[in-house]
Design goal:
alpha/beta; six-stranded parallel beta sheet; four-stranded antiparallel beta sheet; binds 6-O-phosphono-alpha-D-glucopyranose; binds manganese (II) ion
C-alpha cells in the first residue's frame, strides 16, 4: 500500500499533482489518495474532479478519501503534499492590495504581503506537521505552501527533525521558459543556484549536451532581446513582462542570472507603477483558475462529463512527484530545495534558510557545498534573512516590536512609517489568523 494525502486538497493544483502521480505509477504505485481540507465545499468539488480523472485514466481501482478530519487524513499515510493557503484567495487579495495602497509592492510572497501571509501560514503548517508526527511519524511531507522561506524558518525552529522537504517550482519554471524561448533543452541542464526562496541567482547552468556553461550566453541573449511581447512563444505571454524586467536586471547586474522575483526588490517602484491597485493577481486567479475549477465541478455534478478535464498543469506537479519518486526508490536526483544553510553557502550564517541545489533520495536532502558569494548578494541576503527571522520571532513571541522591525527591514520597504502603516492595517485585516501581537 502506498498512501498519499494532499493537504489543501481543494486547491486548483490538486489535479496536476494527481495527474503527475498517475503518470508515474510504475515508480510510484499509489493505492490510495486522500484529500484533506478544512473547506468541505472545495474538497467535495475536488472529489468530483479527481473521481472523473480516475475514470478517464481507467484507474477506478484507486481508493479516494475526502475528509476534513485530521485523523482520517493522516493515519498511516506515506507522503503528504502540502499546498494549504491559510485564508484563501480572499486574504491573498488583501496581502496584495494593502501594501499597494501605500505604494509598496503588493505580492503574495515578496514584500509585506508575503510577510502578512507568513504570519498566517505558520500556524496552519505547524498544525499539519503536528498531525503527521502524531498519526504517521515516518511519512514524508513535501511542502510548497508559501511563503516558503518563512515557513521553513518556523519549521526549523519547532520541528527541526521533521521529515519535511520545502520546494518551489520557480527555478524550474524559469529554466523551462528560458530554455524553450532561447532554443535549449532544460532536461540537459545542471543549474547551480543560491539565494533565499524567490530571491536568488544562478552561478552556472551547465548543459550536458553542449558541454559548456550556458549562463553567460543566456545573459547576453537576455540583454540583447528587444523586448517585444510578440517575440515570445505562444503560451508564454504571461512571461513577457517578466522578460522585460529580466532583461533590465541583467543589464544593470550582468554577473549572474537572477530569479525573476528579484524584480520586486530591485525595481519595487516600477512594479508598483505597473500594478492595478484594484485588480491584482489574486483577482486574476479568482476569475481564472479558481472559477474554472468550480465550473468544472458543477458540470460534473450535472452529469456533463464529456471533455471537461482540460487543465494546463505546467511543471509544478511533475517537480513534486519527481522528488517523491527519488525518495521512495532511493534514486538520488538533484533539485533546488529550501533548507537551513548549514555551510552550503560558506560565508552566510549557518541557520539562514536558503535555496540551494541538493540531492534527494531515501535519506532526504543532501545539499551541495557552494562557493562563497559576493558582497552584493550577501548583503541583500543578510538583510532579508534578518527580516524573515524577526518575523518568525514576532510569531513565536507575540511581539509587535519584532513584527515592525521585520516589516521595516523587508527589502521592498523604504520607510519605517510605511512599514508601520501596512503592519497596522494588516493586523486588523488578519485578526482571525495572526497570533496576537
Ligand atoms: C510560482 C511560485 C509560487 C507561487 C506561484 C503563484 O509557481 O513558485 O511560489 O505561489 O507562482 O502563482 P499564481 O498563479 O497563483 O499567481
Ligand atoms: Mn514558489
Amino acid at each position: 500500500n502506498l498512501i498519499i494525502t494532499i493537504a489543501g486538497g481543494g486547491s486548483t493544483y490538486t489535479p496536476g499533482i494527481i495527474s503527475a502521480l498517475l503518470s508515474n505509477s510504475s515508480k510510484f504505485p499509489i493505492t490510495e489518495i486522500r484529500l484533506y481540507d478544512i473547506d468541505q465545499k472545495r474538497n467535495e468539488d475536488m472529489k468530483l474532479i479527481i473521481n472523473q480523472l480516475l475514470i478517464d485514466k481507467d484507474r477506478q481501482d484507486m481508493k479516494l478519501i475526502v475528509t476534513e478530519k485530521p485523523e482520517e487524513a493522516f493515519t498511516n499515510v506515506d507522503f503528504v503534499f502540502s499546498q494549504i493557503r491559510v485564508g484563501g484567495l480572499a486574504m491573498r487579495e488583501l496581502d496584495e492590495k494593502i501594501p499597494l495602497k501605500y505604494d509598496l509592492v503588493g505580492q503574495e510572497t515578496c514584500g509585506l504581503g508575503g510577510f502578512a501571509y507568513g504570519l498566517r501560514s505558520i500556524s496552519g503548517i505547524l498544525e499539519i506537521v503536528g498531525y503527521v508526527q502524531q498519526y504517521a511519524p515516518n511519512a514524508w511531507i513535501l511542502n510548497y505552501t508559501n511563503p516558503e522561506s518563512i515557513i521553513s524558518e518556523a519549521i526549523r525552529r519547532k520541528y527541526p527533525d521533521a521529515n519535511m522537504i520545502n520546494v518551489c517550482d520557480m527555478t524550474i519554471s524559469l529554466e523551462e521558459t528560458i530554455a524553450s524561448n532561447f532554443g535549449y533543452n532544460r532536461k540537459n541542464w545542471i543549474p547551480t543556484y543560491y539565494g533565499l526562496n524567490h530571491y536568488g541567482w544562478y552561478s552556472k547552468i551547465y548543459d550536458t549536451s553542449l558541454k559548456r556553461d550556458v549562463m553567460p550566453e543566456i545573459i547576453d541573449k537576455l540583454r540583447q532581446v528587444n523586448m517585444d511581447v510578440a517575440e515570445f512563444n505562444e503560451g508564454d505571454q504571461y512571461w513577457a513582462k517578466t522578460y522585460q524586467l529580466m532583461s533590465a536586471m541583467v543589464k544593470y547586474f550582468p554577473e549572474a542570472l537572477p530569479n525573476n522575483y528579484l524584480e520586486y526588490y530591485w525595481f519595487s517602484d516600477v512594479m508598483v507603477e505597473n500594478d492595478d491597485k484594484n485588480f491584482t493577481r489574486a483577482n486574476m486567479v479568482m476569475e481564472g483558475r479558481e472559477a474554472n475549477t468550480r465550473k468544472m465541478a458543477e458540470q460534473i455534478r450535472n452529469g456533463e462529463t464529456e471533455d471537461i478535464l482540460h487543465f494546463n498543469f505546467g511543471e509544478h506537479g511533475n517537480y513534486i512527484v519527481d522528488i517523491a519518486v527519488a525518495i521512495l526508490n532511493d534514486e538520488p536526483k538533484r533539485f533546488m530545495v529550501i533548507t537551513p544553510n548549514k555551510g552550503s553557502i560558506p560565508n552566510l550564517r549557518e541557520d539562514a534558510v536558503v535555496e540551494v541545489p541538493a540531492y534527494i533520495g531515501a535519506t532526504g536532502v543532501e545539499q551541495l557545498a557552494l562557493h562563497p558569494i559576493n558582497d552584493f548578494h550577501k548583503g541583500m541576503m543578510e538583510a532579508q534573512v534578518a527580516a524573515e527571522k524577526l518575523l518568525v520571532d514576532a510569531f513565536f513571541e507575540h511581539s509587535y516590536d519584532k513584527a515592525l522591525q521585520a516589516f521595516t527591514l523587508n527589502q521592498t520597504v523604504p520607510s519605517a512609517r510605511a512599514a508601520k502603516q501596512v503592519l497596522d492595517d494588516m493586523m486588523v485585516a488578519n485578526k482571525d489568523y495572526w497570533p496576537e501581537l
